[in-house]
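Colleagues,

For the teaching module next term, I've prepared a clean inverse folding example: a structure given as tokens, and then the sequence designed for it. I'd like students to try predicting residues themselves before seeing the answer, so please don't circulate the second half yet.
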């Protein structure tokens, strides 16, 4: 199984919590997790991934490796989000997504189907 990790943006803590609550009620089992951290560091990302409940069939070592590879290969993007998070104040989180590619593709196709 292949995995992807992306930083999506900055969100107020309460908005992120409400989204997580709605997302978890709406979807039964999915290979997608949205994560929130107060810091833009590799350690913070790894800690947030380690707190993800095991997904059906997920190889957590490969998920962690995906996060590390993202960190190593996207220095400019990481600096950008570090600056945005610092500018946003203490009541905000950096939101990221970790997913298996099959589930993410299915979600995108579902969204496209709903909009047509």
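(Answer key — instructors only)
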């Amino acid at each position: 199984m292949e995995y992807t990790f992306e930083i999506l943006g900055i969100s107020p803590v309460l908005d992120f919590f409400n989204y997580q609550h709605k997302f978890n009620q709406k979807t039964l089992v999915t290979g997608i997790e949205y994560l929130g951290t107060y810091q833009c560091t590799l350690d913070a990302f790894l800690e947030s991934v380690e707190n993800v409940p095991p997904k059906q069939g997920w190889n957590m070592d490969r998920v962690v490796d995906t996060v590390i590879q993202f960190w190593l290969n996207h220095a400019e993007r990481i600096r950008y989000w570090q600056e945005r998070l610092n500018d946003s104040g203490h009541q905000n989180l950096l939101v990221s997504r970790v997913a298996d590619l099959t589930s993410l593709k299915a979600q995108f196709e579902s969204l496209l189907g709903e909009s047509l």
